[in-house]
Amino acid sequence: MKLLGIEFAPLVLPMHRRYETLAVASWFFLVAFGGLTGLLVCLYLLFTRLWWLVPLYATWTYLDRHVGESGGRGNVWVQNWRWWYHLKNYFPVETHCVPSFSLDPTRNYLFCCFPHGIIPVGPFTALANTWSNFRKSYPEFTVKLAVLHALVLLPIVRELGLAYGTISCSIKSLNYELSRPEGGHIVNLMPGGAVEAYNSQPGKYKFVVKKRKGFVKVALKNGSPLVPVIAFGETDLFRQIDNRVLRNVQEFLRKYFFLGLPPVVFMGRGFFQYSFGMIPRRKPITTVVGTPIEVTKLENPTNEQVEELHDKFVQALVALFDEYKYKYLENPEDQYLELQ
């Protein structure tokens, strides 16, 4: 129903859809604003009788500051919350592994996921979510989601993130996880980083990868196969203002005030209407997992070896997009992958 140009949700909907909307809205709020909310809560508590909790928690956070770079501390109880089930079904999020995809449980893998989107729903829900088809198909693997180091330090929200299975995306953290001798570990990394969030526009796919070679060097040092991953539909969840002057301001704020987090200006939907708001739009996302690229372990890879593997990865990424855009994108003949 439309009223004054606003498209409202039907009054009568199945209850599971209400649960799904609530799940994605609360999740998005936690990811986008949980850190700031935690800081404000701590600031408020300083002026109450519970002020002593703040220095106590600050001490705990300081002593625990390296956990994000030493494998994290996933909690099975948290990972099995029904919340994540409703989150997956909201869009919905599905996973498709190419026919040649296979994993060796004695090895560790670096899944390189594109695009980042405003918030990376695909890697979070399709690969790291215990309710996903991928996790059910490969239960012998431990899956970690590599995020900005600041996200494993911000108060309160860090505890939920660590319990879910997030780790820092620092070189130290990646080396720790990928060098585990027992194998059976998967790290989901967004090489495009937070900067790639600026490129997120409905129907557009622009990956930041040309100059991102650190992940290749990490893979070579640990002998971990690189796996190209593309989440088709990731960029359709929000509209975003695209302006050069605004982009310069956003980048300045990201570097100096937002701990690396992109201050994007976006528009989604609301709880009871579909025209505007901060909730992701209900659009299907299919995360396609490509064939692992074999990597030979090199303690000190040369620039030429890094370049060679990087070129191979980019070629595989482009080929994966060109093949599966015909299956998962509308008007595939008009869809092109742009590399930045």
Which labels suit this protein?
single chain, 340 residues, alpha/beta, two-stranded antiparallel ribbon, 11 helices, 13 strands
Structural account:
It contains eleven helices and 13 strands. The chain has helices at residues 15-45, 53-63, 76-79, 82-90, 121-127, 133-137, 157-164, 171-178, 214-222, 244-256, 303-328; strands at residues 2-3, 6-7, 93-97, 109-114, 142-147, 166-168, 185-189, 205-207, 226-232, 239-240, 266-267, 285-289, 337-339. 39% of the residues lie in helices and 15% in strands. The radius of gyration is 20 Å and the shape is globular. The protein starts with a strand and ends with a strand. With 340 residues, the chain is an alpha/beta fold. Helix 1 (15-45) crosses helix 4. The longest helix is centred in the first third of the chain and has 31 residues, at 15-45.
User: Major sheet: order of its strands?
Assistant: 3-12-9-4-7-5-6
For the biggest sheet, the summary is: 7 strands, mixed
- % residues in beta strands: 15-25%
Q: Please, how many helices?
A: 11
Question: What's the topology here?
Answer:
Layout: E1 2-3, E2 6-7, H1 15-45, H2 53-63, H3 76-79, H4 82-90, E3 93-97, E4 109-114, H5 121-127, H6 133-137, E5 142-147, H7 157-164, E6 166-168, H8 171-178, E7 185-189, E8 205-207, H9 214-222, E9 226-232, E10 239-240, H10 244-256, E11 266-267, E12 285-289, H11 303-328, E13 337-339
Parallel strand pairs: 3-12, 4-7, 4-9, 5-6, 5-7, 8-13
Antiparallel strand pairs: 1-2, 9-12, 10-11
Helix pairs in contact: 1-4, 8-9
